[in-house]
Automatic annotation (TrEMBL):
PANTHER family: ALPHA-KETOGLUTARATE-DEPENDENT DIOXYGENASE ALKB HOMOLOG 3. It comes from the Bacteria. Signal peptide: none annotated. GO terms for molecular function: dioxygenase activity. SUPFAM superfamilies: Clavaminate synthase-like (SSF51197). Pfam families: 2OG-FeII_Oxy_2. The lineage of its organism: Bacteria, Bacillati, Actinomycetota, Actinomycetes, Micrococcales. Residues 108-206 form the Fe2OG dioxygenase domain. GO terms for biological process: DNA alkylation repair. This is Putative alkylated DNA repair protein. InterPro entries: AlkB-like (IPR027450), AlkB-like_sf (IPR037151), ALKBH3 (IPR032854), Oxoglu/Fe-dep_dioxygenase_dom (IPR005123).
Length: 208
């Protein structure tokens, strides 16, 4: 483990969030699913990436897939509602998203799931976040990415071609509408040499 310098831990003003809606574009998909993409929302996130890689108590993920429990090749940490987030900027991000989407979503973002993809071999297979209310209802899942650009792949569950959305350093991607029910998403493996990527997913209560 690398020992962090004091200056690295003292993030201070070096991390900034832009306005959520600035430069944001909405892409409508089939079946009432949509994506909001806001490039470069979080600036100076390279320091945040490094701090989170070292400070978050990452866990190897085990997940029920079909009839067996398999290793999901990535590390994760889930922050439940009310649990302090590892850096103040993450709470600021969550609250800014809640404010931006208040009218449309009707409830705040409350939980934060964090994933660490150590290199191109780490991935998450095709799935929808359909544990809880999102199985039946529309919801929003807001993802902030740090580090290597590992595109978010999406494909309609009833067939049809997949699409890729850039999820680069500091970018915000929000999946909305019916996206969890009618589309699947994945972070696919890559043979390219890529460094670590962290994603932070903000969800509402009762949705995983
Ligand atoms: O890492 C990402 O951007 C997506 C993660 C994801 O889909 C999940 O954890 O449910
Ligand atoms: Fe997901």
């Amino acid at each position: 483990m690398v020992t962090l310098q004091g200056s690295l831990l003292d993030l201070g003003d070096q991390i900034a969030l832009g306005r959520v809606g600035e430069g944001m574009t909405r892409r409508h998909l089939t079946h009432g699913a949509w994506l909001d993409v806001r490039p470069g929302w979080l600036t100076a996130g390279d320091r945040l990436l490094e701090v989170l890689v070292h400070e978050v108590p990452w866990q190897a993920e085990r997940r029920q897939m079909y009839d067996s429990v398999v290793d999901v090749p990535r590390l994760t940490r889930f922050y439940a509602e009310g649990e302090p987030l590892p850096r103040p900027v993450l709470a600021q991000a969550r609250d800014a998203l809640s404010a931006h989407y208040a009218g449309e979503l009707g409830e705040p973002f409350t939980t934060a799931g964090m994933c660490l993809y150590r290199d191109g071999r780490d991935s998450v297979a095709w799935h929808g976040d359909r544990i809880g209310r999102s199985r039946e209802q529309d919801t929003m899942i807001a993802i902030v990415s740090l580090g290597a650009d590992r595109p978010l792949s999406l494909r309609p569950r009833d067939g049809g071609p997949s699409i890729k959305v850039a999820a680069g350093h500091g970018d915000l991607v929000v999946m909305g509408g019916s996206c969890q029910r009618t589309w699947d998403h994945a972070i696919l493996k890559t043979s390219a040499v890529v460094g670590p990527r962290i994603s932070v997913q903000f969800r509402v209560s009762g949705v995983r």
